[in-house]
Design goal:
Blueprint (H helix, E strand, L loop, with lengths): L2 E5 L4 E5 L7 H20 L2 H11 L5 E6 L2 E10 L8 H9 L1 H12 L9 E9 L8 H15 L4 E7 L3 H9 L3 E7 L4 H4 L3 E8 L9
Parallel strand pairs: 5-6
Antiparallel strand pairs: 1-2, 2-3, 3-4, 4-5, 6-8, 7-8
The structure holds coenzyme A (COA).
Keywords: Acyltransferase, Transferase
GO molecular function, one term: acyltransferase activity, transferring groups other than amino-acyl groups
InterPro entries: Acyl_CoA_acyltransferase, GNAT_dom, YpeA/RimI_acetyltransf
Amino acid sequence: MAAEETDTGSGPVTLRRSVPAGAERRAAELCWGAFGRKLGPALNPPDKAVPFLAARLDADRAVCAFAGGELVAFAEYQLGGQEPAKGAATAVLRTYGRIRGLYRLALLALFENHPKRGRLVVAGIAVDPGFRGQGIGSLLVEELAAIAAERGCREIRLDVIDTNSRAKALYERLGFATVRTIRTPYLRRLLGFGAVTTMCRSVAPKGLPAQ
Ligand SMILES: CC(C)(COP(=O)(O)OP(=O)(O)OC[C@H]1O[C@@H](n2cnc3c(N)ncnc32)[C@H](O)[C@@H]1OP(=O)(O)O)[C@@H](O)C(=O)NCCC(=O)NCCS
């Protein structure tokens, strides 16, 4: 898929609308680095989790950012009305075994999302810690919004947990507004967060004005 170069002020960054073959493991490492605390109870230990995430990655529903030829940021998304990405259940049971796998499946179900038609849902955005604060996360969000518009979506949604107030502030600056907050205090000890806020930004499908 076509790549596009932008200068963030800290150097050129190239965006790509897919994960190139061979970069799946690096993308999975970025996800694990960013979301390991949240995903750990379902996917630990890391030496199982990272290959599992790499194998399950949907390369064509992702945006990557490269700096100096290295994959430094990654975002995954789902489009409403499309088949969900590869089924998790069999893969989880195969990787972790039947007994342990069932508990993990129950935890993973908490993060599952089946977007409605006309909606792009961001499954995750992860920037390499050494490259944060340079505008790369914002570039990924704008690229996701462009994809949403091209695919005829009316809105782009994402979830942010209550311990991530800096990310929430960033999304607000980028035009997202809170739709709802679901409080999950019983998950705080296990997963490290006690509430999830869904945020939304309107998108003008290509050729139509934004609502
Ligand atoms: C949140 C995240 C994607 C932002 O990417 P980024 O490239 O740093 O974002 P930008 O440079 O475009 O914008 C910087 C802003 O991001 C936000 N931010 C959130 N966490 C940050 C971090 N650890 N380091 C730097 N900025 C962070 C802040 O609002 C920051 O602005 P500030 O410096 O004024 O507080 C990135 O920090 C990240 O990968 N964090 C870990 C994973 C995560 O939280 N993902 C989002 C889940 S909803």
